[in-house]
Fold:
Amino acid sequence: MQSLAANRSLKIDSAHLIELLRYWKSLSSVGRLPGRKDIDPLNIPHILPYCELLDVYLDPLDFEYRLIGTKIDEITRGKYTGLRVSEIPTQIAPSLIYELYCKVVEDKKPVRTVLPYTGDQPGIVEVESLVLPLANNGHDVDMLLGGIALN
Structure:
């Protein structure tokens, strides 16, 4: 399995993922993660099609797709809104997606990676992915904000 540790430097290639990271950082304060309540979709409307929100469930650790942007929805093999990662055969643990989400929850830091594209849309080889932690109480990650770019 591909390691995510090498991507700690967040060498983001996509302009809209750089913008998403800057927006997330603008919502953070020292020692405190932003929460879902801090995000205003009106501030980032042009990148919303490339974004997703996931709820984090503990014991056992799992992730549920709450919202999926239209561009993400177009390239996936099924409709994931409302589904948990444990219900999706290509994402259930152990998988690169599951590992990515776990890393963000564990480290409470953004993670950027490039994953192979497994869908059926021609011309897409890989997906640059950025996943950002959200915490309503500022500390315990309870949601993930993700963004993708297609390569």
The longest helix spans residues 15-27.
